[in-house]
Amino acid sequence: TDPAKVKLGNGADVKGTRVRVFGRVHRERKQKELVFITLRDGYGFMQVIFSGILAKSYDILTLTRETSIEVLGELREVPPGAKAPNNRELHADYFRIHDIWKAAGGEEAITNRVSKDTEHATLLDLRHLTLRGEHASKVIIVRDAVEYAFNQVYRELRLRKVSPPALVQTQVEGGATLFKFHYYNEEAFLTQSSQLYLETCLPSMGDVYCIEKSFRAEKSLTRRHLAEYTHIEAELDFITFDDLLDHLELVMCRVLEVTMADPVIKQYIIDLNPEFQMPERPFKRMKYSEAIDWLVEHNIPNEDGEPHNFGDDIAEAAERRMTDIINRPIFLTHFPVEIKAFYMQKDKEDLRVTESVDCLMPGVGEIVGGSMRMDNNEELLAAFARENIDPSAYYWYTDQRKYGSSPHGGYGLGLERFLAWLCKQHTVRDCCLYPRYFGRCKP
Ligand code: 4AD
Ligand code: MG
Prior knowledge:
Layout: E1 5-6, E2 18-30, E3 35-40, E4 45-50, H1 52-55, H2 58-61, E5 68-77, E6 88-96, H3 110-113, H4 120-125, H5 127-130, H6 134-156, E7 160-161, E8 167-168, E9 180-183, E10 186-190, H7 195-205, E11 208-215, E12 228-237, H8 241-260, H9 263-272, E13 284-287, H10 288-297, H11 316-326, E14 330-333, E15 346-347, E16 350-354, E17 356-361, E18 365-372, H12 377-386, H13 395-402, E19 408-414, H14 415-422
The structure holds 4-amino-1,4-dioxobutan-2-aminium adenosine-5'-monophosphate (4AD) and magnesium ion.
Residues 172-173, 193, 195, 216, 218, 225-226, 229, 231, 233, 366-370, 410-414, 416-417, 428 line the site of 4-amino-1,4-dioxobutan-2-aminium adenosine-5'-monophosphate (4AD).
């Protein structure tokens, strides 16, 4: 009878036992009497050794990378001085390769199609193959752990998960980045944010969160903008702005703790980002007006090449330089009304600014945007007028202010940006399975 089928990760290291494994040939090295392969199955890597007649068999002699293979054999500790994943090797005594499992060698081999010098656009066309690489797959595996950790931490904090619609008829973050489409006989959009819907859940469901796709028709090619991204959003009832900041800091740190508690994931993060350190708490808190002064002092100009003035947008380049110099997470707060979305609550002590926060991370810049929400209907209607938005489509949103309004707030975190920071990736495009951005909708 066949021994138990095992995955290649940590669970499979009971030395001396016979096991049966499946995987793809990640590397192979042929010697006179022995053939070594590194097998890969998404759970880990294992060194497999073929000797004797197996090493001389046609299929093993012609084995190409990426070929799928089933191996039976005995797990042993590696001899002193030798190196292998998890310090163990599988001594094969039987294997199976079906004809259709064989990967094309030579010119068509994946390693020839995807080399270090392959152009970025080609690499993206070949994303389905580059995903087989160690680097690309580690980022996606860490992503899974992080998403899972957010779910766990929100549970701990008693937030409930809901699932708002992706097809909507209202904008949240400005008309310029709306994807419009024909919805039967009406006009509709792909959602930019689930925030407004989350707000409608508060009265009867308590604090809520969602992990959904958001869509932005961004027309610029930057390293942190996608057309489709995963948006982690939460909304909290009966809170103050300070409560919101404390919650956000807690969630981010707790998510990192939970993620790093898994030794395999922790190792992947260290492999990807050797300098990673847990952020120091409390996060630096800085008002927008202080940031403007800081940018002027450091001679970092605005988008027109002029010194920053109160009221200017802090553009991506300036934001990133500031974050890189300060080199720790920053809660940037109290942005002017004019440069922020219609729904943001004004600061009672300074009506020029809003109770808003962006969380900035070194290497990436903004990864979270949040605020307290306007809870007064009159004020909200005035804000719609200011932005030239027809309030009639928002009847369900304004109703929240008519039937038992409350002080509430929330935020949205871009999962790909969080990962770009955590795994030190140059671009968010490498932090999702199949990136979508200006000019790319394949594979
Ligand atoms: O700052 P944003 O636009 O805020 C909102 O959408 C709020 N309604 C969220 C809320 O309060 N519930 O987006 C929030 C975050 C950004 O900080 C960024 O991390 C990410 O979403 N994000 C993008 N990520 C990738 N590609 C894009 N085009 C992104 N636009 C925003
Ligand atoms: Mg923002």
